[in-house]
Amino acid sequence: MQAVGYICSGAFVTSEEQLATLQFPTIAKMKCQPALPPAHRRPPAFSSLLAVLGVLLSLLFLLPPARADTWVVGPDGQPNDLAAAVAKAQDGDVIDVLPGVYKGVHLVLEGRRLTLRGSGEKAPVFDGGGTMVPYPALVLVRGGDVVLENLEFRGARSEQSAGAGVRLEGGRLTLRNCHFRDNEHGVSTNNDAQAELLIEASSFGMAPRVEGGLYHLLNVGRIARLTVTGSRFQQGFEGHLVRSRARETTLRHNMIHDGPGGGASYEIDLPNGGLVTLVGNVIGQGRNSQNPVMVAYGAEGMSWDRNRLVLAHNTFLNYGWIPAWFLRVFDERLPADTEVIAVNNLTVGMGLFSLINGGLFEGNGIATFGMLRDAETYGFELPPSSYWRGKGVDPRSVGGLDMSPQAEFRWPVGTEKLPKLGRWSPGAYQR
Q: What CATH number corresponds to the domain at position 371?
């Protein structure tokens, strides 16, 4: 905007020529600035308002973030009742659950951002008591971002025969050091293409022994992403230990082992394909299994536009006398460009692995139970003198993927980080 002159210490100077006639010392003492036409001058009140707003904004950025509250709850309602604390809690708050048995729990967390955390060494128990109820889970998460930590869920039953300890219907759910026993489904989800489920250092077992029940310890629908690490699955009956229809399924360093007397069907069922990564797992099928297949991929055809199965450094164990299908890929139901990559896996006991499946198979080994350190006590490592020690291929660049193991499962749950390796052996254990 063109200036109409200059204002110098309150005096109006009409031109640059007039400004030049002033002596330099005089100018230095005078405060000169361009004078705008009256229509473009900011009124004093407006300038003052801007100054006040600037100060307020500065103070706003200096304010500390809102403090999350912690609500302590007990099984007898003291110092707070569980359901009441959940209802009153604000986003970001923590519900600290004291040890004990909480009977008849039914929580619905809809659009919430909360953490429910068990305190003490022994996890508090949310107990459904095996009673048939009209709702689908002891804890139902609908949207939001929820963390459940150090809690046990037991005895979930529903009138639809699909009672879950925890059910996810949208949003993001993290389960950390949680335990699921005697539920129709340990954890289940609906179909929500944006939902995410993360499970760390948790355990699942004791499926109800109901013929025809087909209860799965983990039953995941068509969600965006399932990630499970350092967790243990055992004691299934007729249903699967792990079933996932997720677009991306990642299982790393888990014990998915039904036990010698287990009665599950598949150990891992991936009926709709998707992007699947199985690295560093122990996958064991008991003598009483309902199905010889241990890992099934694509049994019901594809649901996703990208499909790839990667298996690296897994130990497969078949305790039965009937040969197992350690891996069955239903390639006739999947797109022709579906990739299958299997590197440095170890199969133990009778069964088929690479002979009936197409794809890239490298560095895989075959062993008997006597070739392991001590299978009876779950010592599934190869002894130092094993022929297979160091016989694996470099898993860091097979098919353009890094499939190297970063940790090993450690009993009863959790993982132990591996040191930097210079050579690789087939199977889940490298030490």
A: 2.160.20.10
